[in-house]
Design goal:
Distance between the termini: 85 Å
Shape: elongated
Number of helices: 8
Radius of gyration: 43 Å
Helix content: 55-70%
Keywords: Membrane, Transmembrane, Transmembrane helix
Length: 197
């Protein structure tokens, strides 16, 4: 039987029961091949069974083996804390899932508060891009009032500082270009157009 349908069906030969004769002649002093000699010199099965039974210790227990002593804490307050507040049992799957949900909720709340304090202008920009309606108008007015309150506290300064730095870097890049004296890319285009005419 083959894996491919186009292969011819070749009958399987029976499994060989006798080893072929070794092509290597025996060395000086050997009267039989190595494998046959090993089979001859093998100890009787009764001796092997007796030896295996003799090595087994019925009273042995893996918990009787010596273990390393627990390290002595360097700080006595740690030992007192472990004595006063022993660690609880490890949480099960439901406890791990609840802990993950709490962690995710905290991260979302912290990120939302951070963005409401330092990036309320993005909410205003979003409401201006939406179709006018009751919800967008309400959110825009709330964001405007909130933005004024945060500006009075100075929470809008980090965003304005980053924006000013970006504008300065963009202007510096254009003013430092070799085409700045010609009026930038527009000046170069007009210069090439006048040359071609």
């Amino acid at each position: 039987m083959t894996d491919r349908p186009d292969d011819p069906d070749t009958p399987l030969a029976p499994f060989p029961t006798a080893l072929p004769q070794s092509p290597f002649p025996p060395l000086d002093g050997e009267t039989a091949p190595y494998l046959e000699q090993q089979e001859i010199e093998a100890p009787p099965a009764e001796a092997v069974v007796a030896e295996e039974v003799g090595d087994w210790i019925e009273t042995a227990d893996a918990h009787d083996l010596p273990t390393a002593p627990e390290p002595v804490p360097a700080n006595p307050l740690l030992a007192l804390g472990r004595f006063a507040f022993p660690p609880g049992e490890p949480p099960d799957e439901e406890g791990l899932a609840a802990r993950d949900r709490r962690w995710t909720s905290r991260v979302i709340v912290v990120a939302t508060v951070f963005l409401l304090i330092f990036n309320i202008a993005s909410v205003q920009n979003w409401t201006r891009q939406q179709a006018p309606g009751w919800v967008t108008t309400t959110v825009d007015r709330l964001a405007e009032v909130w933005s004024e309150q945060m500006a009075s506290l100075g929470a809008d300064r980090p965003r304005e500082t980053v924006r000013e730095g970006y504008e300065r870097a963009r202007e510096a890049r254009w003013s430092a270009s070799p085409l700045a004296g010609e009026g930038g890319p527009e000046g170069r285009m007009s210069g090439t157009e006048t040359q071609t005419r």
